[in-house]
Amino acid sequence: MAEDRFKVRVAVLAIIQMDNKVLLQKRINTGYMDGFYDLGAAGHLESGESLKMAMQREIKEELGVIVKLENINFASIVHKKDGESGLEYMYVYFKIKKFY
């Protein structure tokens, strides 16, 4: 039955590189890991989005820059169970080298 299928949350994360440097941001007012550094942009996949579309949206929302879908390149995927909440996540990482 479909109700019995395993469900996992999906998050996309941007590894934004420029001049051999990686952009990091300090987390504030999120309620999760505030005060720690994180990749340049990250967020959850929304219904109806492709992974690349979710990454494009999160970068625009969090950084105010435009990235074309063809400049969003798959880097890695990690399946992890969060220690605090016990929720399972699929983290999908993308490399971004060109943005506007």
From TrEMBL:
UniProt entry keywords in alphabetical sequence: Hydrolase
GO molecular function: hydrolase activity
RNA-binding listed as a keyword: no
InterPro entries, sorted: NUDIX_hydrolase-like_dom_sf, NUDIX_hydrolase_CS, NUDIX_hydrolase_dom
Domain Nudix hydrolase: 7-100
PROSITE patterns from the UniProt entry: NUDIX, NUDIX_BOX
Gene3D superfamilies on file: Nucleoside Triphosphate Pyrophosphohydrolase
A Pfam family it matches: NUDIX
Name used for this protein in its record: Pyrimidine (Deoxy)nucleoside triphosphate pyrophosphohydrolase
